[in-house]
Amino acid sequence: MRILVVGANGHTGRRIVDRLRAGPHEPIAMVRDPNHVAHFEQMEVRTVVADLEKPLDPALEASAAEALIFAAGSGSKTGPDKTLAVDRDGAVRSIAAMEAVGLRRYIMLSALGADPERQGSPIAHYLRAKGIADEHLRRSDLAYTVVRPGRLTFDEPTGKVDLAPDLDSGGSISRDDVAAVVVACLDMESTVRKSFDLLAGPTPIADALARL
Predict the structure, then answer these.
(1) Does domain 2-210 have CATH number 3.40.50.2300?
(2) Who is most buried in 14, 87, 117, 167, counting CB within 10 A?
(3) Domain segments of the chain: what residues?
(4) How far apart are CA 192 and CA 171, in angstroms?
């Protein structure tokens, strides 16, 4: 499939693009800044320049994508205004665009603890925004997967994870392993219309996803 990666220039987004390039699917990098196009052109990856704060139907149509991975994020240290614009409203726009152009497969990179009612955390505004976007996606007719990783690290990948619809504990996981899980979901029927928390753990990725 041709996969539009929203947020392709982020730390995890770039790893998702790399994973897609190494497999059977074709990544298409969506970036906001035209200055980032050259990086992907050097990798022979097609790009689409688009802004999450505007309608995304034209970007989807121009890309001729068949599925979408939403890996964009304002970052947990960003102020509430930008967080809402990207993590909530941008995600909702991407869902609406998928519905408008008739596409179905959508993978959301969310966050552990995402909850529309989240309070009592220094990043509560971020987790609320993510939670609202997740709920909007779950109410859609799309063939979605919501991946909620814990704290993202730059550690070396292990290829092993702990994942479940709800994990009691917090923790971390490498960005490379998150990218591997997100890309693997594209070909795992067991992940369709499922949401799950994701941490580093003892189980090979394919086995963990097959058990959902």
Answers:
(1) no
(2) 87
(3) 2-210
(4) 25
Distance CA 91, CA 94 (A): 5
**Is the pTM of the predicted complex or chain greater than 0.90?**
yes
Tell me the one-letter amino acid at 183: V
Q: Contact, 63 vs 3, CB < 8 A?
A: no
Q: How far apart are the C-alpha atoms of 105 and 141, rounded to whole Å?
A: 10
Instruction: Read off the tokens for 163.
Output: 């994942």
- Given this model, what pLDDT does residue 76 score? 55
- Mean of the pLDDT values across residues 8-30? 97
Q: From 148, 114, 149, 146, select the one nearest 132 (Cα to Cα).
A: 114
Q: Which residues are catalytic?
A: 126
Q: Which two tokens stand for residue 142?
A: 């799309």
Helix (H) or strand (E) holding 202, with range, is none
Which pLDDT tens digit goes with each residue over 138-156?
999 999 999 999 999 999 9
pLDDT at 78 over 70: no
